[in-house]
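In this section we walk through a basic example: taking a raw amino acid sequence and producing a predicted 3D structure, encoded as discrete structure tokens. The instruction is simple. Fold the sequence below.
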Amino acid sequence: MRAWTVWTVRATAGLLIAVSLSHTLWNGLVEPGNALAFGALIVVGELARRDPDGDSADTALHRTAPLASAGALAYALLGETAGRPTHHGVLQIVAVVVAAALVGIVPHIARGRGPALDHLARRVLTVAFAAVCFQPLYNSGRLEDRVGQGPYLVLFLLFLLGLTALCDAVLAAALAGARTGWPYGPLLRDELRAQLGIGSAICATGVVMALGVAGAGLWAVPVFSVPLLLTQLSFHRITAIRTTYRQTITSLARATEIAGYTRPGHSRRVAALSCAVGRELGLSERELGVLEYAALMHDIGQLALVDPVPAGATAELPAAEARRIAELGGEVARQTGVPAEVAVVVERQADPYREQPVAARIVRTVNAYEDLVGGTRHPTGSLAALERLRLGTGHDYQPEVVECLARVLARGGRGSVVPVQAG
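The resulting token sequence is shown next.
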């Protein structure tokens, strides 16, 4: 079913691209000046796109190329140019968007950082959706008869872009769920939340640009694209700062490995598996950010010990000693400047699970699993470790978390640490 979802989206987008390009090449461009102006805007937006280091395949394309997305939507909603009606159709809109996007991503592909195929498929389908909803109504005159050219037209365009954003979120969540196996509901919720941020700026810019060109002509394209371009550059700077901060936390977490307190790669394995379990439980992106940071730093308190714990396996320690290490870790975490809730998760990972926040329950369970399996990954060892965890569900480990961990392991995936935001 998951593979069927991905291939259905790709096949639909591919068929639409083939038909659009063939139709446009056969009949030629209608109003080539408009097509060139918006195509150039999309190219500039793609060239300005910058993928954050470590970015996952699930990053929405409009988050890294908002100017290109806004230009594509504006062209799809273009009804007039300087008071003169336009006559380009849905197929030409798709053809221009695809051609411009391909030109813009060539330098990124040359550097080995081109966008995923699914992202391009989503761009094509969402733009086609907006164009299909607007162009036939406008060209037939029914839109003007029913809503006119005043504020009701603006409201209609905003409503249409809201539906387009919903379409994009549904597609993104479906593709991410098919690719990762994570629950669909939380993925859709995260995509909808993302639409309220940069997605709102894209929709607003698309509407304003389309209306501006209708009244002032193509000069409105560069004028109304500047604010979103500046926003995009600011977004890149913020993303770079967050990436650097995350790398700093990861390096700090490795201090226990370098000092010989824990096994090499332990903190990253716990973080990766914790994020996978958190996804399975339906945590939001922000909650996953807190979980990841806490999982990376969960053993930092061991640096205060005079005698290291053998192999860093805190799961086998007496409750009082495990709690002391967790409290020391919480104090260290606060000194690093991470969000307060991250430090709370670190310092409460040794408490009974009924008294813990959800993130602490996950970290404790996953850390215990890692300690029990040790350096081996033999299936028998994993089953024995899960059985030990199930025996401790009366006090130490939440049963739902243990079962989620079992499902993640049964799928053969240990997850991957995704660059989510903690604050």
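Looking at the output, two observations stand out. Residues 52-62, 414-423 have pLDDT under 50 and may be disordered. The chain has 18 helices and two strands. In the next section we compare this with other chains.
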